[in-house]
Amino acid sequence: MSEDRVEYVTQASAELPQNPKSYNKLSIGLHWLMVLLFIAVYATIECRTFFERGTDMRNLLKEWHFILGLTIFTLVWLRLAVRVLKPAPPILPTPPKWQTLLARLVHAVLYALMIGMPIAGWLILSGEGKPIPFWGLELPALMGPNKDLAHEIEELHELFGKVGYFLIAFHAIAALVHHYFFKDNTLVRMLK
């Protein structure tokens, strides 16, 4: 990396103010925005079942599911960049090592889902030969039409969607347990 690039990255990092006891404002904002997007992504795909296949409303909900999923995919890269520039503040008091390792594992899998699930959705639409909408744009297909492969990817997408329900719930419950039972700053770091 060139000296100019290193200086630019260092300057950009310095411009993200951070209280050592909490995440920076951009990280906090992105976290809660993505919570809302996750709720919307899951709500759109669950609510589609109230409408018959092929109806306009069902198709609209599926389209919004995809658009919002790709929005998560786009924002996760910004979250990761901010996380590299401004690492997470420490949990105080320091939790046992096994809790720290478990938290890292859950975070890694959540980030993998935020990247992998939208790509899987993109592959599904590509394989079905359908348009790939994204906020008024039509994205290129990631593969040629292949309905059998698209169906297999869709089954994995649904399975990992269920894993996502569990992990999101676990993540939220763990934050509450840390706040109310362990009385540490795990949750507070993401609120201030």
TrEMBL record:
This is Cytochrome B561. It is found in: Cell membrane. Residues 23-191 form the Cytochrome b561 bacterial/Ni-hydrogenase domain. Belongs to the cytochrome b561 family. The chain crosses the membrane at residues 26-45, 66-85, 105-125, 163-182. InterPro entries: Cyt_b561_bac/Ni-Hgenase (IPR011577), Cytochrome_b561_oxidase (IPR052168), Di-haem_cyt_TM (IPR016174). One of its GO terms (cellular component) is plasma membrane. It is a multi-pass membrane protein. Its cofactor is heme b. One of its GO terms (biological process) is respiratory electron transport chain. Keywords: Cell membrane, Electron transport, Heme, Iron, Membrane, Metal-binding, Transmembrane, Transmembrane helix, Transport. One of its GO terms (molecular function) is electron transfer activity. It comes from Saccharophagus degradans (strain 2-40 / ATCC 43961 / DSM 17024). Its main location: membrane.
